[in-house]
Amino acid sequence: MVGKKITVFKLLIGLMLTLLTLTMFVPIVNIFARALSHPDRVNQLKGYDLLPKGFSLINFQVVLGNPIVGKALMNSLFITIVGTCLCIFFTTIAAYVLTRKNLVGKTPIMIFLIIIMIFEPGIVQEYMVMKDLHLLDSLWSMVLYRMINVYYLIIMMRFLEEIPESLLEAARIDGAGHMTLFIRIVMPLARIPLLTIGMFYAIAKWNEFFKSSIFLSSRENTVLQVLLRQFVVERDTSTLVGAANLLKNNNIAQLDFSSLKAATIVVAMIPILMLYPIILKYYTSGVMDGGVKE
């Protein structure tokens, strides 16, 4: 077996990618270290330290001990999970319809969708639509918001166009209708693009805070990203450190603001970070499907 030749160009690319990875890895690990450090020693941490100074979970007790944070976390999970599932389903079924050769008016529909993609509506128009639909201050406003991304729709269309028409025609001869074709044939064959755009949709739903702060006005329906912005950016400690936490944690006055902020960021990061290994597991297991023809 002849080994692969390592060139100077490959070494430079590897070095650049390693440095790029470190620029993202070191700050994240430092945030975890700051959140887990003991309040009396957190001031000893520097920007490049990767290990906590001492160990304490008091910051997470304060963050998760607030019922508002727990409610916001559940709201964010509901919006992300339900919204992502609906986005994937409607994006895929729209791509299936738009890739049918006998679809009447396909060109005008695509032109209309591209115009929508280029000229997005303003916040006032979106707010008025939500108001007319009676979805203001409802979690469904964020679930249904931008259910179909035109860019992801076009990506899905390109994948579905690669499915052999003879395969679909054979299923039609056996009596399969459009829903049977879509559920039994198209969806299983489109697993990789489904996982890809599903990850994009999930990240967008989870990280959306601007529209959430506009559409969701009550504290009962707030989401985690809005609380994170209020505490980290606006430094609104009264929202996170409430009376309940003051009673439960006698040493809360000794907490460091930066470590408490780091713990809040960690709580907001963990759910979406857990998504990546799950997606990559199924992505790598199916990336070679259909690659070898007998």
TrEMBL record:
Q: Which residues form the ABC transmembrane type-1 domain?
A: 73-278
What PROSITE patterns does the database record attribute to this sequence?
A: ABC_TM1
GO cellular component terms, semicolon-separated: plasma membrane
Q: Which CDD domains match?
A: TM_PBP2
> What does the UniProt keyword field contain?
Cell membrane, Membrane, Transmembrane, Transmembrane helix, Transport
Compartments, as annotated in UniProt: Cell membrane
Secretion signal, residue range per the UniProt entry: none
Chief localization: membrane
TM region positions: 12-33, 77-98, 110-130, 142-160, 181-203, 262-283
Q: Which Pfam families match?
A: BPD_transp_1
Q: Which GO terms describe its biological process?
A: transmembrane transport
What's its membrane topology? Multi-pass membrane protein
Q: Of which family is this protein a member?
A: Belongs to the binding-protein-dependent transport system permease family.
Q: What is this protein called?
A: ABC transporter permease
| Organism in which the protein naturally occurs | Paenibacillus tyrfis
